[in-house]
Specification:
Elements (H helix, E strand, L loop, with lengths): L5 E4 L3 H14 L6 E4 L12 E3 L3 E3 L12 H7 L12 H11 L8 E2 L15 H12 L2 H4 L16 H10 L7 H10 L1 H4 L15 H15 L3 E3 L2 E11 L2 E11 L2 E6 L5 E4 L9 E2 L18 H9 L7 H4 L2 H4 L1 E8 L3 H10 L8 E4 L6 E4 L14 E7 L18 H12 L10 E7 L25 E3 L14 H16 L15 H11 L2
Parallel strand pairs: 1-2, 1-10, 2-6, 5-13, 10-17
Antiparallel strand pairs: 3-4, 7-8, 8-9, 11-16, 12-15, 12-16, 13-14, 14-15
Length: about 525
């Protein structure tokens, strides 16, 4: 296998993780691994860029825990830190979180600018009964149903729903299966959802803290990176009822090129992307409303799925932007007044509070102040914070237009309205909005067969590694899902005799179950 080559189509965390597992656990030569990425940078949805002059921007920040994320930490225990000699990325992350523990004191804020009491989840007895029934239902029974098919309208007004939905970005019309999986996978978080006590953060944004050190390590292993490289098609044929990829067509710098895939070579495809067709605005312009016509990540999967049963159904995820779109924003400040006022209001120093959600906001807006600096190149006199809204198509409370028609200045006006801060507080701010039409597309109601398994039974040398792949028990919209899928595919292809880190069954712990029951009755 050492003479074989591996081609990873897409440069997201799944591909980077797959390359690392091939080298670390499979004895694969890094010089025989090729990563092809359509964008100028690797990292996929784990992005983070900018400077203090033009403003910083990141589409999002994934929640981490050390009670879960088994495959992620298995990986990053092997990747050297870029800032702490002799330490790994895992080491530096643990040390950072020991110093900066999450304990939110302003998780929900209402229209009176009052901090909402959140010790109670706000459930009625019918709410508890419905939630229990959903959590116990089998996935076959849940099928392609929505959360609203199982829970009554009043459930979506509970404190629990506002906290759970904004922590994990669920919408009422999303998949009941995915919601149930989250209830089980993060049952530990159910007991501390009001303080976000189990949430862990990386030292910087996740591009700087995860992608850069991983890419740096892969570079030392002589892995090849092709950026600005759009894969357009795969040459393929069927041999003994299995699809065999024999060539990769791509475009780079306007030139069409082909890679010959030889016998024994492997191809890993990142099928679909939750951040495809993302667009940025500015302080004076709203983000362009891009659509599927502007996408680059779905077409190849659609071609393959149309030809092969077992390769999934992309249409289940990319057919309704209105159900999968929300908008984030990144704010760069050169005056500490906003951070000072937020710390005074919330009772949390930056980096200890997590999300502050304005529950009565028409946009359902949340913000989070991370520990500073949040970017490696961020000067000491600059602060950066991030926020997002789940309902960008609704008219604001303080700005008379939908969020997705607002520029950065108008988003700051809406935020200051909820906080009752003078606009002078953000006079020097640069707010960069980001519209993401498919950001929760992996949460769309779907059947079990709508996602391919990592290596379909009718594939010989093609694996799928993305958020749109079916593996049991784990939850999408996490770094862990991408890494776990990659590890499964690599181990199966290379027949690696090492146990894959199992999903920790917190939901089967009597203690955790009892504490969750107590929480539900508060």
């Amino acid at each position: 296998m050492n003479e074989s080559k591996a081609y990873l189509l897409g440069g997201g965390i799944g591909s980077l993780a797959a390359a690392a597992f091939m080298i670390r656990d499979g004895g694969f030569s890094g010089g025989n691994i090729f990563i092809l990425e359509a964008k100028p940078l690797l990292g996929g949805s784990l992005d983070g860029a900018g400077n203090p002059t033009d403003g910083y921007s990141l589409r999002g920040g994934r929640m981490l825990t050390t009670d879960n994320y088994e495959c992620t930490w298995d990986l990053f225990k092997s990747i050297p830190s870029l800032s702490l000699p002799g330490k790994t990325v895992f080491d530096e992350t643990i040390e950072f979180n020991e110093l900066h523990k999450s304990h939110s004191m302003a998780r929900l804020v209402d229209s009176r600018r009052a901090k909402v009491p959140v010790s109670s989840m706000g459930f009625s007895m019918p709410n508890r009964k419905e939630l229990l029934e959903l959590s116990l239902a089998g996935e076959a029974e849940l099928g392609a149903s929505c959360i609203t098919d199982w829970l009554s309208p009043e459930f979506f007004e509970t404190e629990f729903w506002f906290m759970w939905a904004t922590t994990f970005t669920f919408q009422p019309w999303h998949s009941a299966v995915e919601f149930k999986r989250y209830l089980h996978r993060f049952m530990l978080e159910f007991t501390r959802i009001e303080t976000l006590g189990g949430v862990k953060r990386t030292v910087y944004n996740q591009y700087d803290s995860f992608v850069r050190p991983l890419q740096s390590w892969l570079a030392t292993q002589n892995v090849h990176f092709y950026v600005d490289c759009q894969v357009t098609d795969l040459e393929r044929h069927i041999a003994t009822d299995k699809l065999v990829v024999t060539g990769i067509h791509y475009q780079q710098c306007g030139e069409s090129k082909t890679i010959a895939v030889e016998n024994g070579d492997l191809v890993f495809l990142q099928n679909g992307s939750m951040t495809d067709a993302s667009s940025l605005g500015s302080m004076t312009s709203a983000p362009p409303k891009l659509t599927k016509q502007d996408c680059t990540s779905w077409q190849l999967w659609e071609k393959l799925a149309a030809e092969n049963t077992g390769f999934g159904n992309p249409a289940a995820f990319n057919s309704s932007i209105a159900e999968s779109c929300w908008e984030s924003f990144t704010v760069t400040l050169k005056n500490p007044e906003f951070f000072d006022k937020m710390c005074k209001f919330s009772g949390n120093e930056a980096g200890t509070g997590g999300l502050v959600t304005f529950k009565d906001s028409n946009w359902l807006m949340s913000i989070v102040l991370a520990y500073q600096p949040h970017f490696i190149n961020q000067p000491a006199d600059v602060q950066v914070f991030w926020g997002y809204s789940l309902f960008p198509d609704r008219v604001g409370n303080f700005v008379p237009k939908p969020m997705d028609e607002c520029n950065g200045a108008e988003i700051l006006q809406e935020l200051c309205g909820h906080l009752r801060f003078d606009l002078d507080t953000v006079a020097s701010a640069n707010c960069i909005p980001c519209r993401m039409p498919y950001i929760t597309s992996m949460f769309m109601p779907r059947l079990h067969t709508d996602r391919p398994v990592p290596i379909p039974h009718n594939s010989r040398n093609l694996a799928f590694i993305s958020q749109f792949v079916e593996i049991p028990d784990d939850v999408v919209f996490t770094v862990e899902y991408s890494v776990r899928v990659a590890q499964i595919a690599v181990y199966e292809f290379l027949v690696i005799d090492r146990q894959l880190p199992p999903v920790t069954p917190h939901d089967r712990s009597p203690r955790v179950q009892f504490e969750a029951l107590i929480k539900a009755f508060k």
